[in-house]
Design a protein that fits this description.
The chain is elongated. The protein folds into two domains: 211 residues, 3-Layer(aba) Sandwich (Rossmann fold), CATH 3.40.50.300; 75 residues, Alpha-Beta Plaits. Helix 6 links the parallel strand 7 and strand 8. Helix 3 packs across helix 4 and helix 4 crosses helix 5. By secondary structure, the protein is α/β, with parallel strands linked by helices. The protein is built from eleven helices and 14 strands.
Length: 302
């Protein structure tokens, strides 16, 4: 089951929230969807689920067009919205049976029991939702999103407000679920993306700015810069080192070691080698340094 987003644009009045956003997500992919507040993440997720109509462009799920009126294709999508709205006066099992009824499931009782087991709600199923902790409410939200066994799962900030233990439990659950589904996960937690996702999409001000694996992002492919750690056998003349063409920043980390950064993703290593030869220096270390995902995100969205 694939998600194909093609040239989606959306405006609220004079404010353009999404601008020609396009990407595809395949079966079995767990994609982290990142962007600063106001970047358009929640709006795009609502469009993908058919909850909101785009101004232009299209969304296809397995070749079928997603539209607000297309109930058949929307029934193949599971959606956990931000803030996880629930009926807090209902009991957990009662609520899940109600949701199963919306989808007119033939095996409603069996499917509710299956979701209770899968999401770890067995001990809480006879409690009112309003009496549950934030972590268990998130589990109820996941259970309702999965109750009809959708092929596509859209999760908008599913771990907001959870403590570290709850966070780890929900991560494991999402990883388990993603083995057989196409999952799109929006979050602000970079460690969460690195822990569970195999691909990252970043948007900023409604525009897609990066789409690739975590290794590609951390390797500087999208941030357009390179950081190199270099160490010589003795201290070089600093002004000459600083004047290497394309060297943007230089930080001395030891007597003869430096962290240098290039502009426009220029590979500094050959230039540093030439510098060492020209200045009769011995290179002890010449190593490209991977950036953190957080640094890449800041570079792309600042």
């Amino acid at each position: 089951m694939t998600i194909k987003v093609s040239n989606i644009s959306k405006s609220y009045g004079t404010q353009k929230v999404l601008d020609q956003v396009s990407f595809e997500i395949g079966t079995g992919e767990l994609v982290g969807f990142l962007g600063p507040n106001g970047a358009g993440k929640s709006t795009l997720m609502k469009i993908i689920t058919g909850y909101l109509a785009a101004d232009s462009g299209s969304v296809e799920i397995n070749g079928q067009m997603v539209e607000t009126s297309n109930i058949a294709i929307r029934s193949q999508i599971g959606y956990l919205p931000e803030n996880n709205p629930l009926y807090t006066d209902l009991y957990v099992r009662e609520y899940l049976e109600m949701v199963a009824g919306f989808y007119q499931l033939q095996n409603m009782k069996e499917q509710v029991l299956k979701m209770v087991e899968l999401t770890g709600l067995k001990a809480e199923q006879h409690k009112k939702i309003g009496a549950l902790s934030k972590g268990y409410r998130q589990r109820v939200g996941l259970a309702q999103a999965l109750i009809h066994d959708p092929a596509v799962l859209i999760l908008d900030e599913p771990t907001t407000g959870l403590d570290p233990n709850q966070l780890e439990e929900i991560r494991q659950l999402i990883s388990q679920i993603s083995q057989h589904k196409t999952v799109m996960l929006s979050t602000h937690i970079m460690q969460e993306v690195e822990a569970v996702c195999n691909r990252v999409i970043i948007i900023n001000k409604g525009v897609l700015v990066a789409d690739g694996s975590i290794d590609q992002l951390k390797g500087g492919q999208f941030a357009q810069k390179q950081t190199v750690w270099v160490e010589f056998d003795r201290t070089p003349e600093l002004e000459r080192l600083r004047n290497i063409p394309g060297l943007l920043k230089m930080e001395q980390t030891g007597k003869a070691s430096f962290l240098v950064e290039s502009e426009n993703n220029l590979d500094l290593r050959p230039l540093l080698f030439q510098f060492a030869v020209a200045n009769h220096l011995v290179l002890l270390t010449l190593k490209e340094q991977q950036q953190s995902l957080e640094n890449v995100f800041q570079e792309l969205t600042k």
